[in-house]
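In the current project phase, we have settled on a layout for protein records. One protein thus recorded is set out beneath this paragraph:
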Amino acid sequence: MRRPVTTALVAALLLSPPGVTTRLSSSTVDVALSADGRYAALVRTEQNGQSNVYIQDNHSGTQTLISKGHNGPANGDSRLPSLSADGRYVAFETTASNLGTTDTDPLPDVVVCDREGGPSCVYAGRPKSPSRPTASHSPALSADGSVLLWVHAPVLTFSLQAANGTQLARTRLDKDQAGRLQPPTRFELVDTAPPGSTATGVGRPAISADGRHGAVITGLREQPETLVALSLTGGQPTRLHSGGQLGDPVLSGDGAKVAFTAGRRVLVHDRGTGTSRDVTGEGTEPTLSTDGRYLAFVTAANVVTRDLIQDERRTKAGLPPLPPALTSPSIRQTCPDPPCPANGPSRAPRLAPDGSAVAFISTATDLVEGTEPGGTFLRRFTPTLTPDPAQVTAHGADPTVAVLRHNGFGPLPITGVRVTGDFEVFPAETCSARILHAGEECLVSVRFHTRPSTDRTGRLEVQTAGGLVVVPLSDGPGGPGGLLARPSEVDFGPALVTTPGQERTVDLHNTGTVPVRTHRVALVDGGPHFSPGDYALTTTCDQLPAGGTCPLRIRHTPLGMGPRPAVLEIEHTGRGGRELVLLTGAGTAGVVTASPAVGRPGSVITLTGHGFPPGAPVTITLAGGPERTTAVPGPDGTFRAPLLIFPSGRPGLRTLSAISTAGSPPVRAERPLLVQPGSLTPPDLVTRR
């Protein structure tokens, strides 16, 4: 068996101080991380044996007690924290009666606390009464802090023993304009039984980042354990997987992927394809990043992490998956194939939603210097960016491309690109605002300024989450077999969304004396501000003889409204090896007008729209009322439609909205409409000739 590779450093950070025990359990996780791993919600057992929830700021190292009573210490245990993405809100279960709860029974309750301005907590469970005692536990808080799932457990009034089975409940959290929590008023039970089935109980739930999806292991009368997907905005539960020994469901941010355990295996279910696959061979306790790319889990006595997207790419290429990244390595052990496992078991991993860090519990004493067993540890991945070449030599005003490759394991955010000295970025770069992963690269095309200079040097500076990467720039003579793409910038102009627009040509010129072959001509991922899917190559070029020219034809079809740039990359055997072309185009913005411009309750106005996707329905609404209609634009993107203003319609200045979801983002147009009761004729008009 090959050992997992290591590609990160264990941070010298002990979340749970020496001598304070942390619960070690395969069925619960007593640590949670904010989106970037900065904040950790964790459980500490105090000297008096009581468990409390703390938040640690991993930048400053400070800890804040969250499970704090109104007028003193909490009078009960608190555990199982669930944290919002920004670390502001934390939900947990507690038996304390002075943490936003009012009952005095020994049953657990679910509370949500806001850290802003000092912890303030609200009871998030179903309203109780002395004649109807209930327990609430196992909370799952959405990343945006808006929705809470929890297990509702009715109990017998006199014995306080469980009555019937457990149920899943949902609370929508109310907040004021400053985000301060208000006592919740919206509770509902969630149906966890697929059509035709009857639920007998539920396990700990999982929830998507936006609170729209959930997953839970449900006990059914005909099947003891079934993984069920939940639509929390309406719709019926969906059976994903049945069988014995199911547990630990976790969701990607959009709810499209569900990881769970089946016996001693971790499976990932893709709701798009409806298939489940074994991604670990042997493993338990999965935890998934928001984008569904990174999966951390426990195998043997170690915590490891996989890059599922990299695994899929290698499988498609006919290659075996790489071994996972060992996430709990020893700093002192020696072994034939390092890194080496630590000297104690590690378990209960919790992956930061952005995939950058993993918190886990371990009894090992050799994870960091000077630690005692029984701590909760944080491992942060530290990939780097490697420039190729390490120093770039430009050739006058001709652009030269620098390639920057991800090296290591885990996400690598790039926060900025800057060129100094006698050079500038031209025509484009694909690094800014990118997050690179294993096997990925970004490109920066630079050229020498045409202004006179005696120095003719500069620097390419790329700022990453791990530090600054500097590539020296200089100017030098050209070599044989150069390839130029002209023009370097191509503007396609505006077009209706989803409608084919202009076709343009980029000519490739071999300026050298030897043939040049193209390895790849493609539209590349330039990050969140680029739209490569809006463009299509209708011709390509394979080889150019010395002095030869080859045209590339490109068509633009905007798939969304507003500016839609993209980058065309030509990889070739000539000098420099790469050429970039910046493509710009736009999807037209929608416009809607109303006639008359002032409407009265009970009247019909005529709406006219321009710039909408042809043939795609446009939904028109009038804010503040039930008025709604639908129109379908013609081939020129225009429509006309009547809209009835209801007789009981609210008077005043209201917003008229027209939205087509055919684009991404949707094509939207708004304008104000005055709804005015009474006559629409001028007050001084008496007769008409």
In short: The helical segments are 308-316. Residues 108 and 320 are 47 Å apart (CA to CA).
